[in-house]
Task: inverse folding
C-alpha cells in the first residue's frame, strides 16, 4: 500500500513539473484559471486550479463532474483535458488554451456574421454535442460563453461542471440545471429524467441568438421563463406534446398563438428557420437529436459553412489587458527590489520614511536582517 | 450578391417610435397610430397634416427657425438620430456629383487625393463651416467635370440594372424549383392512388390468393415512390449546380475547399454498430408504466439502447491502439 501511495505521489510530481504557471487569467466561484505552458513543447495551456475552500464538503461536485466527463471525451470540438495533478490540497486541471468564446463574438458589434459563418459554428457545436450524447453524457449548461474558440477558429465545447451521464431511467436527475434562458420546457416543468433533447433546446436558442445577435428567450425569472417561451413559440396542444400535463409542475398554460417565425428571422434562409423550429420543438421526443440535426438539408445546402480559420473573431483586447498586467507586475517587482534594498538597512529613520509608501503600494515589508 | 439585390429591392421602412409627438399639433402616436412625422431640410419635425396645413398654399416659414420651406422638401425620417439622417443626405448628394471611380485615375495616389478633397467638402457641409465655399467648390467641380459625371452616372445605372436582373433571375429560378418539386410530389400521390385503385379492383375480380396480390402491389408501390424520390434528389442537385454556376459567373473567388465533398456529421469515431431488437422484455422495469417519462423525452427505445450499449461498449475498443496514441 505504502509503496503504491509513494508511486502515485511521484507520478503526480512529475506531471506537475511538466507545466509552468504564468499569470492569472480569470477567477470563477469555484476555480482560478491561469495561463501556463508545457515546458518541453512550449504548448500554451490553461491551468484551472479548483478551490477547495475549507474542505468541509470535500472536493467540489463540479470538479469531479468535469474531470469525469472530460476523461471520457476526446473530439476536435470538445475542450481537451491534457492532465490533472494536485498541488498541496489543490486540484489542478491542465486544459487546452483557447483564447475567446462565442459570447464575445456575438457581443462584438463590430463583427458582421454571414449566414455561412453561423452555419459553420452550428456545425462544429453540433458535432461536439453529438459526440457527448453518443457517449451518453449530457452537458446541461450550454450557452454561448461555454463554447470556446481556438486560435484556428475551431469551436470547442467547454465547462463540463454540470455534465452527467443519462439514459438510466431509475436514477433521478435535478431539473434545476442549465442557465435560465437556455433551459428546455420539460426542465421548467420539473422533469426529473430527461435526455439529450435538453441540450438540443439550448442549441436551438443559441442558433436563434446567433441569427438575432440578441438572446432569443430572455426570461426575467425562472417563473417567467416558461411564459417567455410560450409567448415566443406559441402554446403547444396536447397533440403536439402528449403528456405534458403529467410532468411534475405541468399546469393549464395560458394560450398563446403561434407567431410567424420567418418574420422574426428575416435574415435567415428558409432551411435555417426550419432547422431552428425542429430544434425548438416542445415535445422532446420529436425534437431533433444532434446527429439528426447534422443530417438536416440546412448544412448541405449552399452557402457552404465557412472554413473555421476564416470565421470572424473579436479584436484581441484580452491580450492587451494581459500585457498591461504583465507590465504592471514588472513595475511592481522593480519597486519591490528597490524597497527591499532600502528596508534591509537597519537605519530606523530610512525605514520610517519608506514604510507608509510601501504599504500604500501593497508591497511586502521585510523585517530588518 | 443576392443579399445586396434584395436590399436594393426592399423599401427601407421609415423610422417610428412609440412616443412620437408632433411638436406643432401635439398629437401623439399612441392616439394616432398612422401619424406620419416628416422632417424638413432644417431638421425640424412636423406631422403630415401640419405640413399640408402650413405649406399647401405655397412656401412658408418653418415655425421653429423661420427658414422658408416648401412642401416638396419634407420627407420621412429613416434614422432615429437626425444628425445621421443629415449626414446620409449630404453624402448622398455629394455622391451624385462626385462619382468618379478608382479606375478613372491612373495612380492610386491621385484617387486618394480626390477622395480627400471630397471628404473635405463633405465635412464643411456637415459642420456648417464655410457652407458657401463648399457650395461654390461643388458647383465649380460640376462645371469642370460634367462629361465625367454623366458618364459615371450611366455606368452606375447599368450596374444597378444588372444587379436587379440577376436578382429577378434568382427569384425566377427559386419559383421554378418549387413548382417542379410540387409537381413531382403530386405525381407520386397520383401514382399511389392508381396502384391502390388497381389493387382493389384486382382483389375484387381476380381468382389469385389475396395475399399474393397485395404483396405484388406493395413491391410496385415501393418502386414507384423510390423513383420519384430519386428524381427529386436529382433536381435538388441540379439546382445546386446552377447556383454554383451563378456564383462563378459573378467572379467571386471560389475556394478549392468549397468544392470538395464534405460531411456535416463528420466524426473521428466509427459509429457503434449495434442493431437493437424491436422489443426487449424487461418485466422488472415498470418506470414506463406511469407515463410522464415520455413527455420529458425518455423513451423505452433510448433506455434499452443505453443498457445494451453500456453492456457492449468495451468490446469495440482496442487497448493497444489507445496506448500508442497516448505515448506519442
Result:
Amino acid at each position: 500500500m505504502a509503496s503504491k501511495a509513494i508511486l502515485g505521489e511521484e507520478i503526480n510530481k512529475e506531471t506537475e513539473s511538466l507545466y509552468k504557471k504564468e499569470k492569472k487569467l480569470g477567477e470563477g466561484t469555484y476555480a482560478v484559471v491561469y495561463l501556463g505552458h508545457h515546458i518541453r513543447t512550449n504548448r500554451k495551456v490553461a491551468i484551472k486550479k479548483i478551490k477547495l475552500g475549507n474542505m468541509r464538503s470535500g472536493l467540489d461536485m463540479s470538479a469531479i463532474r468535469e474531470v469525469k466527463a472530460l476523461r471520457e471525451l476526446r473530439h476536435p470540438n470538445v475542450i481537451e483535458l491534457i492532465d490533472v495533478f494536485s498541488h498541496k490540497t489543490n486540484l489542478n486541471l491542465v486544459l487546452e488554451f483557447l483564447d475567446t468564446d462565442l459570447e464575445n463574438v456575438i457581443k462584438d458589434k463590430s463583427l458582421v456574421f454571414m449566414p455561412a459563418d453561423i452555419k459553420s459554428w452550428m456545425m462544429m457545436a453540433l458535432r461536439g454535442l453529438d459526440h457527448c450524447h453518443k457517449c451518453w453524457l449530457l452537458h446541461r449548461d450550454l450557452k454561448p460563453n461555454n463554447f470556446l474558440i481556438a486560435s484556428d477558429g475551431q469551436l470547442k465545447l467547454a465547462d463540463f461542471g454540470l455534465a452527467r451521464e443519462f439514459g438510466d431511467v431509475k436514477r433521478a436527475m435535478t431539473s434545476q440545471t442549465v442557465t435560465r434562458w437556455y433551459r428546455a420546457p420539460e426542465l421548467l416543468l420539473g422533469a426529473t429524467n430527461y435526455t439529450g433533447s435538453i441540450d438540443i433546446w439550448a442549441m436551438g436558442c443559441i442558433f436563434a441568438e446567433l441569427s438575432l445577435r440578441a438572446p432569443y428567450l430572455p426570461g426575467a425569472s425562472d417563473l417567467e421563463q416558461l411564459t417567455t417561451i410560450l409567448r415566443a413559440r406559441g402554446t403547444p396542444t396536447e397533440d403536439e406534446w402528449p403528456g405534458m400535463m403529467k410532468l411534475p409542475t405541468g399546469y393549464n398554460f395560458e394560450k398563446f398563438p403561434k407567431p410567424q417565425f420567418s418574420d422574426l428571422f428575416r435574415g435567415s434562409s428558409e432551411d435555417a428557420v426550419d432547422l431552428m423550429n425542429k430544434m425548438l420543438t416542445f415535445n422532446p421526443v420529436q425534437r431533433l437529436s444532434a446527429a439528426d440535426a447534422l443530417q438536416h438539408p440546412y448544412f448541405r445546402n449552399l452557402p457552404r459553412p465557412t472554413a473555421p480559420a476564416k470565421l470572424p473573431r473579436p479584436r484581441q483586447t484580452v491580450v492587451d489587458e494581459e500585457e498591461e498586467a504583465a507590465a504592471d507586475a514588472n513595475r511592481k517587482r522593480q519597486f519591490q527590489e528597490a524597497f527591499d534594498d532600502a528596508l534591509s538597512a537597519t537605519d530606523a529613520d530610512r525605514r520610517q520614511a519608506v514604510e507608509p509608501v510601501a504599504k500604500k503600494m501593497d508591497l511586502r515589508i521585510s523585517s530588518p536582517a | 450578391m443576392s443579399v445586396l439585390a434584395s436590399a436594393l429591392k426592399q423599401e427601407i421602412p421609415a423610422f417610428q417610435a412609440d412616443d412620437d409627438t408632433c411638436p406643432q399639433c401635439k398629437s401623439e402616436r399612441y392616439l394616432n397610430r398612422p401619424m406620419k412625422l416628416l422632417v424638413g431640410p432644417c431638421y425640424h419635425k412636423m406631422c403630415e397634416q401640419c405640413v399640408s396645413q402650413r405649406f399647401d398654399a405655397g412656401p412658408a416659414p418653418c415655425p421653429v427657425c423661420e427658414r422658408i420651406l416648401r412642401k416638396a422638401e419634407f420627407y420621412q425620417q429613416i434614422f432615429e438620430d437626425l444628425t445621421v439622417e443629415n449626414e446620409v443626405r449630404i453624402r448622398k448628394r455629394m455622391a451624385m456629383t462626385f462619382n468618379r471611380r478608382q479606375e478613372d485615375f491612373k495612380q492610386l495616389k491621385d484617387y486618394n487625393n480626390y477622395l480627400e478633397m471630397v471628404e473635405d467638402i463633405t465635412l464643411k457641409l456637415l459642420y456648417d463651416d464655410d457652407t458657401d465655399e463648399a457650395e461654390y467648390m461643388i458647383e465649380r467641380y460640376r462645371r469642370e467635370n460634367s462629361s465625367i459625371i454623366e458618364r459615371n452616372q450611366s455606368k452606375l445605372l447599368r450596374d444597378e440594372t444588372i444587379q436587379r436582373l440577376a436578382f429577378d433571375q434568382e427569384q425566377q429560378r427559386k419559383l421554378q424549383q418549387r413548382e417542379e418539386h410540387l409537381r413531382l410530389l403530386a405525381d407520386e400521390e397520383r401514382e399511389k392512388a392508381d396502384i391502390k385503385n388497381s389493387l382493389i379492383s384486382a382483389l375484387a375480380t381476380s381468382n389469385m390468393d389475396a395475399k399474393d396480390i397485395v404483396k405484388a402491389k406493395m413491391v410496385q408501390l415501393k418502386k414507384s415512390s423510390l423513383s420519384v424520390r430519386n428524381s427529386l434528389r436529382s433536381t435538388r442537385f441540379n439546382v445546386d449546380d446552377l447556383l454554383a454556376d451563378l456564383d462563378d459567373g459573378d467572379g467571386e473567388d471560389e475556394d478549392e475547399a468549397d468544392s470538395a465533398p464534405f460531411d456535416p456529421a463528420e466524426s473521428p469515431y466509427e459509429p457503434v454498430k449495434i442493431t437493437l431488437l424491436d422489443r426487449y422484455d424487461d418485466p422488472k422495469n415498470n418506470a414506463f408504466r406511469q407515463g410522464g417519462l415520455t413527455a420529458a423525452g425518455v423513451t423505452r427505445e433510448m433506455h434499452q439502447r443505453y443498457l445494451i450499449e453500456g453492456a457492449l461498449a468495451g468490446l469495440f475498443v482496442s487497448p493497444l491502439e489507445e496506448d500508442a496514441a497516448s505515448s506519442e
